[in-house]
Amino acid sequence: MTLQANYEQIPLREYAERAYLDYSMYVVLDRALPFLGDGLKPVQRRIIYAMSELGLAATAKPKKSARTIGDVIGKFHPHGDSACYEAMVLMAQPFSYRYPLVDGQGNFGSPDDPKSFAAMRYTESRLTPIAEVLLSELGQGTVEWVPNFDGTMDEPSWLPARVPHVLLNGSMGIAVGMATDIPPHNLREVASACIRLLDDPGATVADLCEHVLAPDYPTPAEIITPRAELLSMYQTGTGSLRARAIYRREENNIVITALPHQVSPSKILEQLAAQMRAKKLPMIEDLRDESDHENPIRLVLVPRSSRIDADELMPHLFATTDLEKSFRVNLNMIGLDGRPQVKDLKMILTEWLRFRTDTVTKRLSHRLAKVERRLHLLEGLRIAYLNLDEVIRIVRTEEEPKPVLMARFRLSEEQADYILETRLRQLARLEEMKITAEADQLEEERARINVLLKSPAKLKGLIKEELRHDAEKHGDERRSPLVSRNAAQALDESALVVSEPVTVVLSAKGWARAAKGHDIDAEGLSYREGDSLLAAVRARTTQQVAFIDSTGRSYSTPAHTLPSARGNGEPLTGRFSPPAGARMDAVVAGDNDTRLVLATDFGYGFVTRFEALTGRNKAGKQIISLADGARVLQPAISADPSRDRIVVVTTEGHLLMFSVAELPELDKGKGNKLVEIPKAKLSSGEERVAGVAVVAESKGEVTLYAGARKLTLRWADLVEYGGNRAGRGGLLPRGLRRVERIETTS
After folding, report:
1. Distance between CA atoms of 102 and 486, rounded to whole angstroms?
2. Which CATH class is domain 40-160?
3. Cα–Cα distance for residue pair 587/506, rounded to 1 Å
4. If DSSP states are collapsed to H, E and C, what string results for 561-574?
5. Where in the chain is the domain with CATH 1.10.268.10?
6. pLDDT for 282-298, tens place per residue?
7. Is 646 in contact with 597 (CB distance < 8 Å)?
8. Which helix (H) or strand (E) element contains residue 496?
9. In angstroms, rounded to a whole number, what is the distance separating the alpha carbons of residues 462 and 746?
């Protein structure tokens, strides 16, 4: 006997496409996006409904959270208990929800770590008073009921929210191909905008933004987004806004008292500490977290000096930490038509008012039906009272009194049943008076309901009155102030470095390092095997250092980024990208306006500003033009080019001093001739410029080095070698005619 396979055969591509579409629609509609009517996702709705079914109203005694979660996942939401519990915890955290829907007792997390809540077996919970606006009309014919996941009971498709809850607590979620980021808002502002829209259906988004000023987060951090950007956000349904922490000065300390939404104090301290360890925050000496029950946020920053301006420091911290945070806004939600859509503010409120109008109409119609049914029963009861003896006789004598009563008094089946079920003790004269009074009262209520249902204007007035009542009862003042602020800018890197003296050391093989202080014996430092000192310059950690290679290109880097002199330093070829075969020949440090004399050993040079040597290009920049065989000399710094003198000495002992002002100031080039060297000696390499130095007028002195000998020339000595630029200069004493280098000693 062969069994017939009972399955469907379809191509894998078709099956995968259908399965993915089904999954994506489930995620969009039943998990990630809130419904515009009640502003809830399915898991949130089921938690609220399950708690109401457990009798966990705001006035009830709270029950273990495990009891609630058990009901939720057992009856309505067959998913993970931890995810369900986390959703409930989120609705109980006052620092996460603007208007918490769950009142949690126990550890429900903290602003420092929102997920540090205790297990559900330890905590207890109940609903908050504001949950009443979601549940109070639930049993009044206002919602559609659908079977739960196993068909054993019904659950509401939505909750009959009396306020636009979708805007009050906001929502975040990631679906398939779309996401939602709805910020929380102030209840009173939103209710006021709804009333404005009821009074003026033609109101624009700009008109509504006179009421809804901006989102309102649970934290008192400032919202600094300009009003024009906020208006654009509400007009398009997308955008972003920025929130900034609040601080104040207490004595010399800076105290942060409020952080942006969902920013934890520990994260801020971690970010600040990381900057301090990287030496990028020299203005701060210490950090303290003094937060407690009375002061939920209290972070203390201790400046190094009372002279530090908090108004200059804090913008840098706003720009480099989460003390200022940007929030994405995407008003994407499931509308009344069951489709997800990004809506502007007017669309949201208009659609919600349609939802509310429909809800109130259903509520009134449901109540009207109950009133009419009760009046119908009371009418039958009144007939029974008026014919009490006859009714009693029929009940006593007839085997089937019900049809007899219906025929005798023209009663409906429902009225006859109600008369037969009436207790004897209710047949007193007083009860007849109560029936008459109740009937009169119900007649008035029926007339009032009929008027409301038939008059759109009166129905609108009822909705407005209920909105005002709920806003007054459950609303509060805005927590997030709107403050106009300029965008925060991080300080320049040099401003974040402590100004300390360093000596930058360059080795012959192009390794660089920075030793603390200016009293450094550069020759006495350790060098790699086969390496030695080439040049050392004094600098400060806040300055740039420029290196010039054998091709005349310059490269710059901040002095504080160079490695410590405890090691051998680092090769500059790893930091820069010089041409192949190029070597580093000179190093200099200074401020942008520092004047330098750049020269080559062929006897040409010019004056330039230090800024001309700096740049961010790793390949450097061509600064000095070199003839074949020429070499760059160590630059000399001129404090006052109009008064300083330049001293040029050649390897054959010719020395010339002339005014620095005779040299042109260029950004780059070859420069002018400094000293006369015969062409034959220059081409043969017999004579070169050994070095240049700049001395101050009347008080400068230089030291010449020739092998083991050295000679210090003071100003009076140097005057004898004075002359004009490009001269041959005077000849040094016979024992110092093989000069190797020259140094300024004052």
Report:
1. 38
2. alpha beta
3. 7
4. HCCECCCCCEEHHH
5. 364-462
6. 888 999 999 888 888 99
7. yes
8. none
9. 92
pLDDT over threshold 80, residue 334: yes
Distance CA 16, CA 575 (A): 52
How confident is residue 26, by pLDDT bands cut at 50, 70 and 90? confident
Class of domain 246-322: alpha beta
Q: Which amino acid is at 56?
A: L
| C-alpha to C-alpha distance for 372 and 447, rounded to whole angstroms | 11
Give pLDDT tens digits for 640-680.
Answer: 999 999 999 999 999 999 999 999 999 999 999 999 999 99
Burial (CB count within 10 angstroms: exposed 0-12, middle 13-18, buried 19+), residue 306: exposed
The rounded distance, in Å, linking the Cα atoms of 737 and 703 is 14
Rounded Cα distance, 220 and 147, in Å:
43
Q: How buried is 554 (Cβ within 10 angstroms: 0-12 exposed, 13-18 middle, 19+ buried)? A: buried
Instruction: Give the model confidence (pLDDT) of 423-445 as tens digits.
Output: 876 666 657 788 889 999 999 99
- Residue positions annotated with a catalytic role: 122
What is the pLDDT averaged over residues 458-471?
96
Query: Boundaries of CATH 3.90.199.10 in the chain?
Result: 40-160
Which tens digits make up the pLDDT trace of 505-528?
999 999 999 999 999 999 899 999
Q: Which uninterrupted H or E stretch holds 146?
A: strand 145-147
Q: Where in the chain is the domain with CATH 2.120.10.90?
A: 596-605+633-746
Domain with CATH 3.30.1360.40 in the chain: 246-322
Over residues 324-347, mean pLDDT: 95
Question: What does the pLDDT look like over 238-263, one tens digit per residue?
Answer: 999 999 999 999 988 999 999 999 99
For residue 564, give every residue at least 6 positions away whose Cβ sits within 8 Å of its Cβ, in sequence order, or none.
513, 514, 515, 516
Structure token digits, residue 235: 């007009």
Where is 596: in which H helix or E strand? strand 595-599
The class (CATH top level) of 596-605+633-746 is mainly beta
Strand partners, 597: 607, 636
| Class of residue 700 by CB neighbours under 10 A (exposed 0-12, middle 13-18, buried 19+) | buried
CA proximity to 340, closest of 583, 629, 31 = 31
Report the CATH architecture of 364-462. Orthogonal Bundle (1.10)
If you compute the radius of gyration of the chain from its CA atoms, what whole number of angstroms results?
Answer: 44
Mark residue 355 as left, alpha or beta (left: phi above 0; alpha: psi -120 to 50; beta: remaining).
Answer: alpha
Task: Give the separation between CA 606 and CA 593, rounded to whole angstroms.
Answer: 15
Q: Give the residue from 713, 573, 710 showing the smallest Cα distance to 655.
A: 713
**Rounded to 5 degrees, what are φ and ψ at 529?**
-60, 130
- C-alpha torsion angle, residues 150, 55, 84, 86 (rounded to 10): 180
Sheet architecture: strand order including 702-706: 709-713, 702-706, 741-744
Contacts of residue 96, defined as CB under 8 A and 6 or more positions apart, other chains included, come to: 90, 114, 218, 262
Q: Please, what is the angle between helix 429-454 and helix 345-386, to 10°?
A: 150
Joined together, the tokens standing for residue 548 give 């010039």
